[in-house]
Amino acid sequence: MLLGHVMLARKQDPIDSEAQAVATIWRYREGIEYEAAALFDMLANQLAHQTEPETLVAMARQAADDERDHARRCRLIVNHYAPLSPVVPAQCFEIAPTDLPLREKLAYAMAAVSCVTETLSAALLLEMQDRAGPKLIRDTVHAIAKDEIRHSRLGWAYLRNYHVSRSLAWLSPYVPAMLSAAMTTDLEPMTSLSRADLSRFGILGRQEIMAICNDAAQHAIFPGFDRLGIDTTQARKVFAPRSPDQF
Question: Mutual orientation of helices 206-216 and 175-187 as an angle, nearest 10°?
Answer without folding.
Answer: 150
